[in-house]
## 1
Amino acid sequence: MRLFWLKGFSATSVSDLCAAMGVTPPSLYAAFGSKEQLYVEAIRHYEARGGPSIWGPMAEARSAREAIERYLMTSAEVLTSSDHPPGCMVVLSTAREEGCPAIGAVVAELRAAAYEGLRALLAAAVESGELPMSVNIAQLARFALCVQQGMSIQAREGASREDLEGVAQAAMAGWDGLVRP
Amino acid sequence: MRLFWLKGFSATSVSDLCAAMGVTPPSLYAAFGSKEQLYVEAIRHYEARGGPSIWGPMAEARSAREAIERYLMTSAEVLTSSDHPPGCMVVLSTAREEGCPAIGAVVAELRAAAYEGLRALLAAAVESGELPMSVNIAQLARFALCVQQGMSIQAREGASREDLEGVAQAAMAGWDGLVRP
DNA sequence: CGACTTATGTAACAATCACTATGGAAAAAA
DNA sequence: TTTTTTCCATAGTGATTGTTACATAAGTCG
């Protein structure tokens, strides 16, 4: 998972993977079938492990604004954590462009789920009256997602947690500007 | 350039490049030396051609706010233009992570120039009095850059120009919130 | 027209790619 | 203890990687 995360699909060879796992090719193929299936399993594992650390804190928020703020602030922390490659594996994946549509479909599914999660959160906030009905939910969800995706690139470039927290703070100012009537 | 832009460094083979150029390997190597040097020449060509279309409109702006707005709105248009691959080649490049530090250095240089351009613009606005001295220039520059980088990922995922213009608009609301005392 | 430099295509280079057939060792079952 | 099954490494599969030696064709100049 870490190798694919860091180097991408094409640039990571089966030799690299075997060396990192301390295994020989036959064992790898007996366990995962192919390099492609291993990547899918790796990114699914990534989502299952890393997902809660980002989506978890949002669930405890008492307002949509606080949820989005936690989403971005937690991202600033997680994406720059030093015990794994920087940035989000799903956001940074380019397997489809590298000529692997099967993986691309899985990645697209995970990305769509992130967007839909944000959208549903905002829709519920409109329903409950926290947000005025005039607010453009799709725009706001896409904006938050876009900022978080940009953070992944910044993190890979070497930005610090503080750098990204500044970005999150700036984005929340955008929220306040847009939500106001 | 388009092949590298779309598929990245590792996933683009010399065969692909030769086929796309209608040339055989010896000609390619006589002209460019190596795949690596060709990538560098391609991304430099990208910057020389595509750079002005983004940085050009900013120069005509009459305020820092308008300049940033043009930066983001023009990006929304250019990054989704249909006559070339979606997203920014410099932002989306992962050559360093793919194991090519020489290319990584060139990409880092181009990215740093973008950040420095934004930073200088904001510094000048503080100097001229348009922006209060209390504003965090580095934070604002990084925020604008981050949003633009996120746009590249969204564009590659299939977002439309209108989608990204919505993001740009939301980001400008963030500007207004941050610049106010 | 002939000599020479400049290209470009053919073919092949060693290395690495993803992947697998085979054989032997360890563990489980009888 | 013997048999059977599971497991895994050695070694090698054909294909493709980036790159180049050679030979032929084209263009340039005397």
## 2
Amino acid sequence: MVATMIKVHHNHEKVNLMSDSIITRFPPSPTGYLHVGGARTALFNWLYARHMNGKFILRIEDTDTKRSTQESVDAILQGLEWLGIEWDEGPYFQSERIDIYKSYVQKLIDTGHAYYCTCSEQEIEDMRQEAVKAGKNPKYNGKCREKGLPKTDNAVVRFKVPYTGTTVLNDVVKKHIVFQHTELDDFIIQRSDGMPTYNFAVIVDDITMHVNTVIRGDDHVSNTPKQILLYNALNEPLPTYAHVPMVLGKDKTRLSKRHGAMSVTEFKDMGILPEALVNYLVRLGWSHGDQEFFTKQELIEKFSLKNIGSAAGIFDHQKLIALNAAHIQASDISYLCRLMIPLLNQIGCNAEQGTFLEKVIFTLQKRSKTLIEMADNARFYYTDAVVYEDQAIQKCFTPASTPLMAALLEQLKQISEFNEKNLESAFHRVVEQTGVKMNQIAQPIRVALTGKTASPGIFEIIEILGQDKAMSRIEKAIMYINEHH
RNA sequence: GGUCCCAUCGUCUAGUGGUCUAGGACAUUGGCCUCUCACGCCAGCAACACGGGUUCGAACCCCGUUGGGAUCACCA
């Protein structure tokens, strides 16, 4: 049984189990990483279930044994967890439910809705060629349909699609779509190796798991009439369908590697906050008036199927980055500190939890678009061996600057308490003494302390660094300038 | 190619017959603030794909054209 694989989260006891409560699912196939398109679909399903106080199921569609891998399963689970998408049931694995599919196949055979087919690959290929020659679509011609063949070793099972008539899909976002049965053929529901095919496995899973709301990419629209026909043959009620427009790359083609980052872990590695990716992905194709910034809680409160747009959207990295900056600004310092410690350690900064880190992060919060950028800009707080950038040397380390730096040093010696206010006064005294502009003294000092011409405010930097470090860095800079001129 | 879907600034979108000389956000341009860089603030540029209808009136409804996308497996 699959019971051992079921991981139930108990943090949503509020879920009511009435028959009309919403049940959604996310059914990735483990053939690669969780990419942003899939993540968005998962998000919509999860958000809708939470919004409606329903249930969200995770199901791994691994009936393609050749392409499915454990690494992919792990990557998908990790991606979902990082995004904060928690499933109430599952993950279920289709590969462990073969008996269930087989019993449903038998039902269909017993009721005359499906049949065994022993046509060879070559025969089918010929049929297609023939159809194409006749100006039709490549299709199976129904050779075995009325033969009443018994089960044999290499037989597949096909579903009988009516030769005439139409199937209608009433979609929440696409509205009314009519499909002609003449466009379909008797598709395979069970492969010769006994595994179910996608269209069949999906509907028996959705039926047996009581999924009543299917939100998925609109690349599935053309599969839907087949699935509806299957529901009807099984005499089961249809779920509510919501086919959401796809996410496209910059050139308006289907998103792929050549469009840059695709998997959610790549975004994590880029220093994107999960709440920013969530916000961006949901907002791409869904809207709530003019609102751009959403916390997860707001998303759960405000998400609805009726505000999903009908046109495909293009993935825009710049907007993601901008939203990320907004989420960084809105984050608690303590949260950012927790995320930053490993990143800082990775680049050789020995960071640990504490007020020093908190102050550092505070100065960087407003000027960092990603966590990676933040870590990079935090370097100088942790390394005494400041590396001066060439451009900074050129611009700020002039012979004229050394007397100013020395004058400031004198003032710093006399400060009793090293706080921003006192430091500002010290700078102003130098300005008054020498008659130069503030930036003529501030910039060389900034380079002396950070190695760069751009940094957080000079007073806050000095306060955080403390008297000893600040003064020794300035002394070193003066020596450096003297040596090089 | 058949079938299906889609169409508002470069991008994401608001808009559901009159309040639209079309609003917001990202990007971009100029300015303010200022110790630098940011943040913030102010201002600017920028769109209803095209053609027919329906209507007193159309971004909104209908038809066509064009353009784009999806899909046509013993993949999902």
## 3
Amino acid sequence: MVVSRARGQHAGLSRDAILEAAVRLVDRQGLAALSMRQLGAELGVEAMALYHHIPNKSALLDGMVERVVAEASPPDFDGSSWSEGLRDYARSLLRALEAHPDLVPLFMSRPAMTPRNLRAMEAMLGALCAAGFEPRRALDVVYSLTGFVLGHVAVQRQIEEAGPDGGADSAARLSGVPADVHPLLSRAARDDRPSGTASRFDFALDALLAGFDAARGV
Amino acid sequence: MVVSRARGQHAGLSRDAILEAAVRLVDRQGLAALSMRQLGAELGVEAMALYHHIPNKSALLDGMVERVVAEASPPDFDGSSWSEGLRDYARSLLRALEAHPDLVPLFMSRPAMTPRNLRAMEAMLGALCAAGFEPRRALDVVYSLTGFVLGHVAVQRQIEEAGPDGGADSAARLSGVPADVHPLLSRAARDDRPSGTASRFDFALDALLAGFDAARGV
DNA sequence: TTGACGAGTTTTACGGCGTAAACATAGCAT
DNA sequence: ATGCTATGTTTACGCCGTAAAACTCGTCAA
């Protein structure tokens, strides 16, 4: 028994409310804390009640991915070049992923091919083809850009794992590498401190887009 | 009782043999099939026997990641430019990851900061600094390159999910998008067929490296 | 008014999971 | 011979996803 509600009383569940609660739960407690029972508790309901709105846990995870991806604003090429449009979209996707870091592992195995996303891809392909890319190359650009953003957040998550303070034995924290055996690594890690992730992302994103520009068939 | 071995008989387990069996099991049956009990069965042993060689399942997964990453050959800059060395390393890492596609999700959350890997990073930083990058920028390049490879395999895995044949309802397969609503997408997906992943990877990798080259402080 | 029905919820149950704790045996050091 | 340690098995616990069934409503036809 969860609260005072009797056996058949409606609890106002819906697919959307469930997905929202699930994302909230993971943001707060991490991916490992997401179980049907915990999620039910978050909503004041028994676990099995969720199955009337969502077929199984895998579909739940898919829905969460879709929900977070939808937070990114679609690319907009009005009054901007293809590269500016792509850059804005990449930044927007990055922000959406960074807002829910514990969900990132899901993105590696769950494509979010929503109608909305297909429209976004179509728009990017349009701008790219208009700029001189062959359709095949344009698709390469779009896929590569997505992968680039995904990879960046994954790596960044690993670097920041266990926070800047906690876990001195954390393998990913470079601060601990001995300067005598890895001088450049330790120096670069020290210099890296102030600017952090945003600067690296923009730097590499600009490089990638510039590279694409150079490869484009005029 | 697993076989005919009596209660205290040694079974020749070792951390390394366990990791190898685990990778083999996942390659054959997928990540979901990896449980301590199944892994024990693969080795002719009860699940709890593994805990004398590995502290817990999380450490097992870490070990598997390290093992697969170690399959990539370290960067070699002898007689080649920094960009050629980085390209070779990226390709080698890509091959290692593609050899164990079901392990890819693990790489998104588990850094593999082995001594071997730190040496590889130090070598890359050396080559980059010698080429005119500031240490901080050099680290950006190394991290971004790693993320790029990771992101590429993740996206590629999603595209190929459920194979080229099975799962016509698979959301990630672009072949099914209606040509009238997404003409460019459907055309690009058709053209994409022959060349596939390798061509896209090399195309985008070259773009990224060219972009880095242009950003380098002479 | 009533009675059947379907949607939404809880209850119960099952097999599998990671792993703590206790126990057993083999081989080695003394 | 004696005990110690390393390595295995057994048992047990609480959690997991979810199938099946029981319950309780609101709705709507007769």
## 4
Amino acid sequence: MHFTTTEENYIKAIYHLQQGTGNVSTNDLAAELSTKPASITDMLKKLTIKKLLRYERYKGVRLSNEGEKLALAIVRKHRLWEYFLVNTLEFGWDEVHEVAEELEHISSKKLVEQLDLFLGYPKFDPHGDPIPDSQGRMAVQQQINLIDLALDIPAEVCSVGSQSTELLEILKHKQLGIGTKLEVKRKFSFDHSIEIKMKSLPAITISQQLAQSLFVKTISND
Amino acid sequence: MHFTTTEENYIKAIYHLQQGTGNVSTNDLAAELSTKPASITDMLKKLTIKKLLRYERYKGVRLSNEGEKLALAIVRKHRLWEYFLVNTLEFGWDEVHEVAEELEHISSKKLVEQLDLFLGYPKFDPHGDPIPDSQGRMAVQQQINLIDLALDIPAEVCSVGSQSTELLEILKHKQLGIGTKLEVKRKFSFDHSIEIKMKSLPAITISQQLAQSLFVKTISND
DNA sequence: ACTTATTTTTAGACAAATCTAAATTTAAAT
DNA sequence: ATTTAAATTTAGATTTGTCTAAAAATAAGT
């Protein structure tokens, strides 16, 4: 069966919003997709007929097994292309998202599998998110929020909470990015700001909000 | 300015049909794009407003400079992706066309330039067609039709006239393909069939029609 | 030159994906 | 429990790219 780019974007949005609990609401979907709730309702009906999701009026929606399979295939393509862009074509990790949004809709199965082979079956994309394999399985992330990192543990930034220009601006100014190695030196309970230390730079303080939008994994200190 | 995939396909079709002489007719375009003439007329009006072509009712159409620039950009992307698929992802030269038809519509400028750089600025795609550079310039092909190749001149198949299943079927059966090295041994004026010899295979005869759909370039015999 | 055939265009309709505005259902609040 | 507020759905309209059927323009044939 074949799906339009629009349909695939709906499926992907539902997948991201339903992570964890409960049903996804029409309003949340409208916000995520920058459309009006009325448009969401129309499309949900259509996708229900196509058996990609389970939807009851006024009660929200969840993906069916079919739908989840499709979502994972799209996420797989998105993250593989991001890996390709950064590691093969030397894009910066912060400039690949938009391009991958287009590439993820290329339909060829063989293309994806050959790309995966060429890249060496990577497990994580440049933002630290896990790449589903051809069966839809993916590695569990051992990332933790920077706000939760214990003192003096060497760690590496491997994921950022969003792609907003505002976040990217402050990260650039503070010289923080994917791959940055750091340790937390102090935590201030007054405002939950934390002091971090990066190699060969003076320690700096970052706000609770900023720390919460950074994810790190601990690294061996050698 | 941004164009839809459909608009780009119209521009590309006109580009291919207008090679050489005269204006492109509505009927020819309809055949090329597998749509009805009425649909062509509608779209031509739209693309005229967008200044991509010069169109007078009942008199056919030609691309404007703008339109030609766009066409070359699309052809460039198509052929670069074909090169990538064959040389990097190890596709066969006969299975890349469809995928490239999708990839050619990815819009990122940076993606194309980085891909070109990664591939080493190739001049010809896997079918032997020249790849336009970022300015739209391309190498002139020194390919000649197999029917015109002189006797006993070593040559290499570098292009095929179409992608039809029928052609691919007979090529496979005769063990002919892009890259095949051969010499013409005899020409029969009765039916214009020719006898060709490939290394380590007995000589075979091929029909005029088949010879006309193969293009070769001469090679030094070492 | 006049009739016939072909090509091209117009007119009106349709499906997909969206919107606005109004109606309906569910949830919240007193 | 009734009213008010919020979320969701319906109804009807719009845009894009397509279609069919009919009309108009051009080309061909005698």
